[in-house]
Amino acid sequence: MTSTLLRAYIISCVGDLWSSKTPLPFAPKIPLAPTNHRFSCGMATKAVQFKGYALTDPSKWNDLQVIEFTPKVFEPEDVEIAITHCGVCGSDVHTLTQGWGESKLPLVVGHEIVGTVTRVGDKVTEFKIGDRVGVGAQRGSCLQCRECKDDYENYCPRSINTYNSQYPDGVVAQGGYSTAIRVHERFTLPIPDEIESRHAASMMCAGLTVYSPLKTHGAGPGKKVGIMGIGGLGHYAILWAKAMGAEVYAFTHDESKVEDIKKMGADHVVNTSDKEFHKDLARTLDILLSTRDVFGDSTPLGDYLSMLYVHGRFVTVGIPDADDTLPPLHAFDLVPNGCLMGGSKIGSKKECLEMLELARSKSIKPWIEELPMREVGKALRNLKNNAVRYRYVVKQDIA
Fold this sequence. Notes:
Layout (H helix, E strand, L loop, with lengths): L2 H12 L35 E5 L10 E5 L8 E11 L1 H7 L16 E8 L11 E4 L2 E3 L5 H4 L10 E2 L18 E5 L4 E2 L6 H20 L7 E5 L3 H13 L2 E6 L5 H7 L3 E4 L13 E6 L10 H5 L2 E9 L23 E4 L5 H14 L5 E5 L3 H9 L6 E5 L4
Parallel strand pairs: 10-11, 10-13, 11-12, 13-14, 14-15, 16-17
Antiparallel strand pairs: 1-2, 3-4, 3-8, 3-17, 4-5, 5-9, 6-7
């Protein structure tokens, strides 16, 4: 048998069980073709299948069914990860309920992923098999634009979301309520040994989403930071801002959370059910970070802006359903103190590495509830009803 035919026979029989970087124990010393190329020796090879809890019927948005799906083609820069944990994010609820538009079905959501590397592509330099890693809300970008080259890949116009995006070949990106995922190494994060997987999971989106604007806008010693909305993201914002050395003001209408908020480290808790909550804080805050994903006309946005010091910044990271908008705003809400308004979208790999180091060095642990993955429907329902303190993480249980 010629070496070419022998090589083809080996690859077609082994399929995707081995990568070209992993030597086969019985193989002759001949170069193997990349495993995303298929050969035939008279018998068709079966495509690799992953499993996941998927939305199949939008009318049953939290009744997810286990399906098999074909992952993206494995490429030289890719890392394949066996998923052990996945956080449950508000983005998952918005997507499953079709609040952000029609989803591509069947769809596996989840973008707060932690697992173990099981395969690496030929061009991967950062990771090896056995490494513990994480993946957040982004799994790809063009890597060529100005944003990508300036470490703003999270703002790339051709960003690929971890789920509900479509690759050029038509494959739909499936998320982390699943057995495995394939991701470009640029969007794969090493998890420090000191951080447990169940804690690291929700850092991949919730943690990073609030860390990025806090870092960008200078949260630290001498700065006064306000946090609107103390849920999954808001509780992380308190933890990070306090660890950065800022004076933290937490804004909530929920009296049942006050003691928790104090334990998280907030220096001040402001009850927004009092209509005059803002008056004693006029021109006090340097940064006001909103994690709320519901606004409506009744939100007194002008009152919040009045609490900002000169050139203070109001930054929103919460994204409501498509039919929800920001409250009415007048120029007089912005001009008197010269305040600035803006938003922030997840974060970059550089920022995520900084965040993980902060969590490691300060021994920061999020407040989470852990469930088996089969109970993700319960977690989603409770999250939608604001009945979680303060983030759900589901653990792998798919056979």
